[in-house]
Design goal:
signal, DUF732 domain-containing protein, 4 helices
């Protein structure tokens, strides 16, 4: 009996995405702070290709770009386009925005960033989303980066 690799991979990708979304939501609830990384990357490097950072005001249109470098000690994940659409259809930003913790404005900002990046990725055929979970900064336990990624860099 043969195991279909594409089926296992697709299911694993969705489980990984769901796990990442749950981890973001749960750590925000536990720590009381959900700090979205609005910088160009978790740790800027001189050799990183230029790219516009996610808009803090979300007034500007977000467009997919190149994947961001993942700093040592951070975890980065680039979803497939189908897993990105799957996550987009479940509106994880609504869950994050409504977490009952003391730092509601931080959760709102993170939810808006995630929603904007998911919207941008789904709007361009074949694009995907990258999630980076980094170490502590400014007293929080984790930092989160969400980036829409151009199709040529997305796994299939």
């Amino acid at each position: 009996m043969a195991l279909r690799h594409d089926r296992v991979r697709r299911g694993t990708t969705r489980i990984a995405l769901a796990t990442m979304a749950c981890a973001v939501a749960m750590s925000a609830a536990v720590t009381g702070t959900a700090q979205a990384d609005t910088s160009e990357s978790a740790v800027p490097t001189p050799d990183a290709p230029p790219r516009s950072a996610p808009s803090a005001t979300l007034d500007d249109a977000v467009k997919p770009g190149v994947p961001q470098p993942v700093a040592e000690g951070s975890f980065g994940y680039i979803a497939t386009p189908s897993a990105t659409k799957w996550m987009h259809d479940r509106h994880p930003e609504d869950v994050i925005a409504n977490l009952p913790v003391g730092h509601h404005s931080d959760n709102q900002m993170m939810a808006q960033l995630l929603g904007g990046q998911l919207d941008a990725a789904v709007a361009q055929r074949g694009a995907c989303v990258q999630i980076i979970v980094g170490g502590p900064r400014d007293g929080g336990l984790f930092t989160y980066g969400f980036y829409a990624v151009e199709p040529e860099y997305c796994p299939r």
